[in-house]
Amino acid sequence: MRMNDQEYFRSCIAKERHLAQLLGHQHIEECYESAGTLWDNAQALPQWTRDWGACGPLMTEYRIALAYAEETEGGSVSDSVVSAGATTVTLSDHPNRDRAVMYAIVKEVIRLLEHHHVAKPEQAAPLHPHP
Questions:
Q1: How far apart are CA 131 and CA 119, in angstroms?
Q2: pTM of the predicted model, to two decimals?
Q3: Phi/psi at 48 (5° precision)
Q4: Which end of the chain is more exposed for a tag (fewer CB within 10 A), N or C?
Q5: Are 17 and 9 in contact (CB under 8 A)?
């Protein structure tokens, strides 16, 4: 069941905050005037769940494979899903396919960082690793 727009927006911000913390950003703030933008000191953090320019580098850096499938219940198709690595997301839980895929990629990177002990940097990871 899809959450309302406000809840969905807040869940995206929460995933971005969690990922930023795992990447070493510790002084994260959200200013009322710039709702939806997280800041580490005076630098805006990427909107990984909402912007392909931010999410794409995560996908390549962590080698996230994508796969699409139809979920079935009792032999009939119930919904479409996207798998990003070991993380599966139901497309209908998101506003569109792009947002579902970006959300899945972020969830998978978080899973990798938390559960597979991917090397954590000594300092915060660069916000835009590609020139």
A1: 22
A2: 0.81
A3: -60, -35
A4: C
A5: no
117: left (phi over 0), alpha (psi -120 to 50) or beta: left
Phi and psi torsions of 98, nearest 5°: -60, -50
pLDDT tens digits along 19-65: 999 999 988 988 766 778 898 888 899 999 999 999 999 999 999 99
φ, ψ for residue 77, nearest 5 deg: -70, 125
| Nearest CA among 114, 89, 86 for reference residue 21 | 114
> What's the pLDDT at 20?
95
CA distance 14 to 44: 15
Contacts of residue 71, Cβ cutoff 8 Å, sequence gap at least 6: 77, 78, 79, 80, 81, 90
**Closest to 17 measured CA to CA, from 123, 106, 115:** 106
